[in-house]
Amino acid sequence: MSTNPVFRKLALPVAVLAGLALTAPSAAAPRAVKLKGTDNMRYDVTKIDAKPGEELEIQLTAVSSMSKAEMAHNFVLLAKNAPVDALVMEAAMARASDYIPASKKSFILASTAMAGGGETVKVTFKAPTEPGEYMYICTFPGHYMAGMKGTLVVK
Questions:
Q1: Which residues are bridge partners to 77 per DSSP?
Q2: Tell me, what's the pLDDT at 11?
Q3: CATH, domain 31-154, list 3.40.50.410, 3.30.70.270, 3.40.50.300, 2.60.40.420
């Protein structure tokens, strides 16, 4: 250690601060939930359990040999009061915004971009704090009607 008195006065606080930085608690990483969307227009996971306010990272991988224009998937988590049928009808006309209708965004709690075959898209969000069931759907035209949906159960 240096004999310079200024250095000695600074060395201890700097060492203490460095130690605090190394031992400070880190925020918990979000829980990763992996889903696959396939050519049969289904998610491979149709129920996700979560605690109120839990941070989740949805990782959606599209499994398809078709082009992205023909077959793509997203994950759209809806509020309890979402007008699902109206949202889906408008979504079919919203290609430029990844089939997310601007007029219905207030009913969407979380969503990913579209994923084509071999692509993975992600979204990180906090589960609603109100316990209950929240529907998630794919808004690519025809997919919800074919059964591409699931439920986030908050309890």
A1: 110, 136
A2: 47
A3: 2.60.40.420
The encoded tokens of residue 16 equal 């203490």
- pLDDT mean over 141-149: 97
SS3 track for 26-79: CCCCCEEEEEEEECCCCECCCEEEECCCCEEEEEEEEECCCCCCCCCECCEEEC
Q: What band does 18 get if pLDDT is binned at 50, 70 and 90?
A: very low
45-64 average pLDDT score: 98
Cβ neighbours for 122, distance < 8 A, ≥ 6 positions apart: 57, 58, 59, 60, 112
Q: How far apart are CA 88 and CA 18, in angstroms?
A: 53
pLDDT single digits (tens) 57-74 = 999 999 999 999 999 999
pLDDT in tens, 97-131: 999 999 999 999 999 999 999 999 999 999 999 99
φ/ψ of residue 143, rounded to 5: -70, -45
C-alpha to C-alpha distance for 129 and 51, rounded to whole angstroms: 8
The tokens describing 151, both together, are 């439920």
